[in-house]
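tl;dr need the bound structure. longer version: we got a ligand (iron/sulfur cluster) that a collaborator sent over and nobodys looked at where it sits. i said id run it. heres the input, straight from their email, havent touched it
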Amino acid sequence: MNNIPLSLREKLKETCYIAGVKIVRRLVSSIDETVKYLFSLYDGEYIESVLMKYEHGYTVCVSTQVGCRMGCKFCASGLNGLTRSLTASEILAQIITAGKDRNVRVSNVVMMGMGEPLDNFENSKRFLKLVTSEDGLGIGLRHISLSTSGVVTGIEKLALLNLPITLSISLHAPNDEIRNTMMPVNKKWNIDLLLKACKKYQDVTTRRISFEYALIKGVNDSPQCAEQLAKRLKGIMCHVNLIPANPVKENSFEKPDLKSIKKFKEMLESKGINATIRRTLGADINASCGQLRKKEARL
Ligand code: SAH
Ligand code: SF4
């Protein structure tokens, strides 16, 4: 930048850095063109992102933290706790870098990679501003989803911003007894408190809420669970995404067979709850988050 004085350049060098991300590894699925990236950050840490091709365009799943402190038992991202939160520009850089790499325009974003976005509230908020700005990527808020494990204070703060993004709640259980064994966050904010916050969020934003439910064999996949879940979600305008749990080396969770997954879906629908079974993308490249970083960083 020769157009600014040397003294200012020196000052910038001392006080600023450009937080981009560098591609360390790129795995391309031969089944569906899903691309999984392992990125390195300026300080040598690693994060993962995934670029997915849908009928309506390209979606990037971004990470918001290096690791995660929420400690969900089924998740590879949180196995070693939180290293640090990402800056807004590091979250943005994942989309720009993936789009440039494949020479495609990214039209949708899901904040569903490594980390808990509401445990990194200010940077997530700033990221939403940058990614939607006409001077940024110009992606509409309606094309963005933010997924949370249930940080109630964060949901309340997000409601105050009244943004038309899709709020996705990782519920995964129909009662506290089961949820407590899977997700430590439930001990701080139980399902009642979480669903109350969701209702409040919906009152403000009028947006449909998406509930993620990872089906784990013998843990949360019984017809009774489906029935309980439908009862609890009554009164919330919502959609349930059923995800066959991804096995992680460090735990012994297994996914149910397709027949019981379909039965679970039908049970929900018979009680008036919309549900879809999430299509698995990138099955051959292990596109679920946290596993690639763990291998690279030898965690
Ligand atoms: N921290 C946020 C967003 C990132 S996790 C959250 O928890 O919502 C993105 C999604 O992947 C969450 O719904 C999470 O519960 C789910 N997930 C994590 N590990 C999984 C696994 N092994 N199988 C299926 N889904 C998993
Ligand atoms: Fe963190 Fe989400 Fe993984 Fe839970 S599921 S440990 S909140 S990244």
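gonna send this back to them w/ a short note. The chain has one domain: 17-298.
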